[in-house]
Protein backbone atom coordinates (compact mmCIF):
# COMPACT_ATOMS: atom_id res chain seq x y z
CA UNK A 1 0.00 0.00 0.00
CA UNK A 2 1.38 3.43 -0.95
CA UNK A 3 2.13 5.85 1.85
CA UNK A 4 0.26 9.15 2.08
CA UNK A 5 1.97 11.36 -0.50
CA UNK A 6 3.83 14.47 0.58
CA UNK A 7 3.98 17.36 -1.90
CA UNK A 8 6.36 20.30 -1.75
CA UNK A 9 5.23 23.01 -4.17
CA UNK A 10 7.68 25.60 -5.50
CA UNK A 11 6.10 28.59 -7.29
CA UNK A 12 7.50 30.38 -10.31
CA UNK A 13 9.70 33.44 -10.43
CA UNK A 14 8.38 36.04 -8.05
CA UNK A 15 5.14 34.16 -7.47
CA UNK A 16 3.89 32.69 -4.20
CA UNK A 17 1.35 30.24 -2.88
CA UNK A 18 -1.46 32.07 -4.66
CA UNK A 19 -0.70 30.19 -7.90
CA UNK A 20 -1.55 26.93 -6.11
CA UNK A 21 -4.87 28.10 -4.70
CA UNK A 22 -6.95 26.04 -7.15
CA UNK A 23 -5.06 22.76 -6.76
CA UNK A 24 -6.83 19.99 -4.86
CA UNK A 25 -4.19 17.52 -3.78
CA UNK A 26 -4.75 14.36 -1.76
CA UNK A 27 -1.96 14.20 0.77
CA UNK A 28 0.28 16.43 2.83
CA UNK A 29 0.99 19.71 1.05
CA UNK A 30 3.68 22.30 1.76
CA UNK A 31 4.63 25.40 -0.21
CA UNK A 32 8.35 26.18 -0.28
CA UNK A 33 8.25 29.96 -0.18
CA UNK A 34 11.00 31.95 -1.81
CA UNK A 35 13.84 33.13 0.39
CA UNK A 36 15.61 36.42 -0.15
CA UNK A 37 18.98 35.80 -1.87
CA UNK A 38 21.88 36.35 0.53
CA UNK A 39 23.43 38.64 -2.06
CA UNK A 40 23.14 39.46 -5.77
CA UNK A 41 25.60 36.69 -6.68
CA UNK A 42 24.44 33.84 -4.43
CA UNK A 43 24.95 30.64 -6.47
CA UNK A 44 21.85 28.65 -7.27
CA UNK A 45 23.09 25.42 -5.59
CA UNK A 46 23.74 27.36 -2.38
CA UNK A 47 20.28 28.92 -2.54
CA UNK A 48 18.74 25.49 -3.23
CA UNK A 49 20.47 24.07 -0.15
CA UNK A 50 18.85 26.75 1.99
CA UNK A 51 15.47 26.01 0.41
CA UNK A 52 15.98 22.27 0.93
CA UNK A 53 16.30 22.78 4.68
CA UNK A 54 12.48 22.62 4.84
CA UNK A 55 12.47 19.10 3.32
CA UNK A 56 13.54 16.31 5.70
CA UNK A 57 16.55 14.50 4.25
CA UNK A 58 15.10 10.98 4.53
CA UNK A 59 11.57 11.78 3.42
CA UNK A 60 9.97 10.28 0.32
CA UNK A 61 8.14 13.15 -1.33
CA UNK A 62 7.20 14.96 -4.51
CA UNK A 63 8.87 18.24 -5.47
CA UNK A 64 6.53 20.10 -7.82
CA UNK A 65 8.18 23.12 -9.42
CA UNK A 66 6.46 25.69 -11.63
CA UNK A 67 8.53 27.60 -14.22
CA UNK A 68 11.70 28.85 -12.47
CA UNK A 69 10.49 26.86 -9.46
CA UNK A 70 11.08 23.76 -11.58
CA UNK A 71 14.78 24.60 -11.79
CA UNK A 72 14.87 24.89 -8.00
CA UNK A 73 12.94 21.62 -7.67
CA UNK A 74 15.65 19.88 -9.70
CA UNK A 75 18.42 21.45 -7.62
CA UNK A 76 16.69 20.51 -4.36
CA UNK A 77 16.19 17.02 -5.81
CA UNK A 78 19.96 16.62 -6.06
CA UNK A 79 20.09 17.02 -2.27
CA UNK A 80 17.09 14.86 -1.42
CA UNK A 81 17.54 11.44 -3.09
CA UNK A 82 14.12 10.16 -2.02
CA UNK A 83 12.33 13.09 -3.64
CA UNK A 84 10.71 12.83 -7.05
CA UNK A 85 10.55 15.91 -9.23
CA UNK A 86 7.61 17.02 -11.34
CA UNK A 87 7.99 20.04 -13.62
CA UNK A 88 5.07 22.28 -14.53
CA UNK A 89 5.65 24.86 -17.29
CA UNK A 90 9.38 24.49 -16.76
CA UNK A 91 12.50 23.10 -18.44
CA UNK A 92 15.09 20.42 -17.76
CA UNK A 93 18.06 21.74 -19.73
CA UNK A 94 19.25 25.13 -21.02
CA UNK A 95 18.78 23.85 -24.59
CA UNK A 96 15.03 24.18 -24.06
CA UNK A 97 15.21 27.91 -23.36
CA UNK A 98 14.32 30.42 -26.10
CA UNK A 99 17.22 31.78 -28.16
CA UNK A 100 17.09 35.10 -26.32
CA UNK A 101 18.22 33.32 -23.14
CA UNK A 102 21.34 32.09 -24.93
CA UNK A 103 21.98 35.63 -26.13
CA UNK A 104 21.59 36.93 -22.57
CA UNK A 105 24.00 34.27 -21.30
CA UNK A 106 26.62 35.25 -23.87
CA UNK A 107 26.26 39.02 -23.63
CA UNK A 108 24.96 39.76 -20.13
CA UNK A 109 21.90 41.40 -21.69
CA UNK A 110 19.73 40.30 -18.77
CA UNK A 111 21.57 42.79 -16.54
CA UNK A 112 19.81 45.62 -18.39
CA UNK A 113 16.37 44.27 -17.47
CA UNK A 114 14.16 46.63 -15.46
CA UNK A 115 11.68 44.30 -13.67
CA UNK A 116 9.41 47.18 -12.66
CA UNK A 117 8.44 47.70 -16.31
CA UNK A 118 6.39 44.51 -16.32
CA UNK A 119 4.09 45.89 -13.63
CA UNK A 120 3.49 48.94 -15.85
CA UNK A 121 2.64 46.75 -18.85
CA UNK A 122 0.21 44.16 -17.49
CA UNK A 123 -1.33 43.45 -20.90
CA UNK A 124 2.10 42.48 -22.23
CA UNK A 125 2.49 40.09 -19.31
CA UNK A 126 -1.00 38.78 -20.00
CA UNK A 127 -0.02 37.92 -23.58
CA UNK A 128 3.26 36.22 -22.61
CA UNK A 129 1.56 34.15 -19.93
CA UNK A 130 -1.47 33.40 -22.15
CA UNK A 131 -3.79 34.52 -19.37
CA UNK A 132 -7.47 35.16 -19.98
CA UNK A 133 -9.43 38.12 -18.67
CA UNK A 134 -11.17 38.07 -15.34
CA UNK A 135 -9.88 36.37 -12.19
CA UNK A 136 -6.75 34.93 -13.84
CA UNK A 137 -5.66 38.32 -15.13
CA UNK A 138 -6.28 39.98 -11.78
CA UNK A 139 -4.23 37.30 -10.03
CA UNK A 140 -1.35 37.76 -12.49
CA UNK A 141 -1.40 41.54 -11.97
CA UNK A 142 -1.26 41.15 -8.19
CA UNK A 143 1.62 38.69 -8.38
CA UNK A 144 3.61 40.99 -10.68
CA UNK A 145 2.86 43.99 -8.48
CA UNK A 146 4.10 42.19 -5.37
CA UNK A 147 7.30 40.83 -6.94
CA UNK A 148 10.54 42.19 -5.48
CA UNK A 149 12.72 43.59 -8.32
CA UNK A 150 16.00 42.55 -6.71
CA UNK A 151 14.82 38.96 -6.50
CA UNK A 152 13.76 39.01 -10.15
CA UNK A 153 17.18 40.26 -11.28
CA UNK A 154 18.93 37.56 -9.25
CA UNK A 155 16.59 34.82 -10.45
CA UNK A 156 16.86 35.72 -14.14
CA UNK A 157 20.65 35.75 -13.89
CA UNK A 158 20.55 32.28 -12.34
CA UNK A 159 18.04 31.04 -14.90
CA UNK A 160 20.04 32.02 -17.99
CA UNK A 161 23.26 30.64 -16.48
CA UNK A 162 21.86 27.33 -15.21
CA UNK A 163 23.89 24.46 -16.71
CA UNK A 164 21.29 21.74 -16.18
CA UNK A 165 22.51 18.24 -15.54
CA UNK A 166 20.12 17.43 -12.69
CA UNK A 167 18.53 13.96 -12.51
CA UNK A 168 15.63 13.62 -14.94
CA UNK A 169 12.21 14.59 -13.55
CA UNK A 170 9.65 11.83 -13.08
CA UNK A 171 7.05 13.75 -15.07
CA UNK A 172 6.58 17.01 -16.89
CA UNK A 173 3.37 18.97 -17.43
CA UNK A 174 3.33 21.73 -20.03
CA UNK A 175 0.93 23.94 -21.94
CA UNK A 176 0.77 23.42 -25.69
CA UNK A 177 0.57 27.21 -26.24
CA UNK A 178 3.29 28.26 -23.78
CA UNK A 179 4.84 31.46 -25.19
CA UNK A 180 7.58 31.79 -22.57
CA UNK A 181 8.92 28.23 -22.85
CA UNK A 182 7.50 26.90 -26.12
CA UNK A 183 9.97 24.01 -26.43
CA UNK A 184 8.82 22.42 -23.19
CA UNK A 185 5.69 20.79 -24.56
CA UNK A 186 7.69 18.52 -26.89
CA UNK A 187 9.57 17.09 -23.90
CA UNK A 188 6.59 16.72 -21.57
CA UNK A 189 4.73 13.67 -20.36
CA UNK A 190 1.45 15.56 -20.11
CA UNK A 191 0.54 18.28 -22.63
CA UNK A 192 -2.45 20.42 -21.69
CA UNK A 193 -4.23 23.10 -23.72
CA UNK A 194 -3.08 26.50 -22.50
CA UNK A 195 -0.08 28.71 -21.91
CA UNK A 196 2.45 29.36 -19.17
CA UNK A 197 -0.21 29.90 -16.49
CA UNK A 198 -1.72 26.39 -16.64
CA UNK A 199 -1.01 25.93 -12.93
CA UNK A 200 -4.07 28.21 -12.56
CA UNK A 201 -6.03 27.75 -15.78
CA UNK A 202 -5.72 23.92 -15.78
CA UNK A 203 -5.60 23.36 -12.04
CA UNK A 204 -8.19 20.56 -12.14
CA UNK A 205 -6.25 18.52 -14.70
CA UNK A 206 -2.94 19.15 -12.93
CA UNK A 207 -4.49 18.13 -9.61
CA UNK A 208 -5.67 14.90 -11.19
CA UNK A 209 -2.22 14.15 -12.62
CA UNK A 210 -0.43 14.90 -9.36
CA UNK A 211 -2.87 12.81 -7.35
CA UNK A 212 -2.36 9.89 -9.73
CA UNK A 213 1.40 10.22 -9.37
CA UNK A 214 1.13 10.60 -5.62
CA UNK A 215 -0.89 7.38 -5.41
CA UNK A 216 2.12 5.44 -6.68
CA UNK A 217 4.74 4.06 -4.32
CA UNK A 218 7.15 6.81 -3.19
CA UNK A 219 9.75 4.54 -1.69
Question: Rounded to an integer, what's the Rg over CA atoms?
Answer: 16 Å
The CATH homology group name = Alpha/Beta hydrolase fold, catalytic domain
User: Widest sheet: strand order?
Assistant: 2-1-3-4-5-6
Number of strand segments: 6
Please report the number of helical segments.
Answer: 9
Structurally, the number of domains stands at: 1
The name of the CATH topology is Rossmann fold
SSE succession: EEHEHEHHHHHEEHH
Mass-distribution shape: globular
- Proportion of beta-strand residues: 5-15%
- CATH C-level name: Alpha Beta
Biggest sheet character: 6 strands, parallel
The CA-CA distance between the termini, in Å, is 11 Å
Spans with pLDDT under 50 lasting ≥5 residues? 101-110
What would you say the CATH architecture is? 3-Layer(aba) Sandwich
Query: From the helix content, strand content and strand pairing, which structural class follows?
Result: alpha/beta
Q: Provide mean pLDDT, rounded.
A: 83
Roughly what percent helix? 25-40%
Which helices and strands, and how do they pair?
Layout: E1 6-10, E2 28-31, H1 44-52, E3 61-66, H2 68-79, E4 83-88, H3 99-107, H4 116-120, H5 122-129, H6 135-146, H7 149-161, E5 171-175, E6 190-192, H8 198-201, H9 203-214
Parallel strand pairs: 1-2, 1-3, 3-4, 4-5, 5-6
Helix pairs in contact: 1-2
GO molecular function: hydrolase activity
InterPro entries: AB_hydrolase_1, AB_hydrolase_fold
Domain AB hydrolase-1: 9-207
Amino acid sequence: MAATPVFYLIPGLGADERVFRFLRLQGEVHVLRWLAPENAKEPLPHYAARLAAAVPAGQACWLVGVSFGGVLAQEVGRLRPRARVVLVSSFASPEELPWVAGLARATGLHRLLVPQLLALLPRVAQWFFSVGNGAEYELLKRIIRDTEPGFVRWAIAQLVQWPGGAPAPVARIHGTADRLLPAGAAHSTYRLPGGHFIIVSRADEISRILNQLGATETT
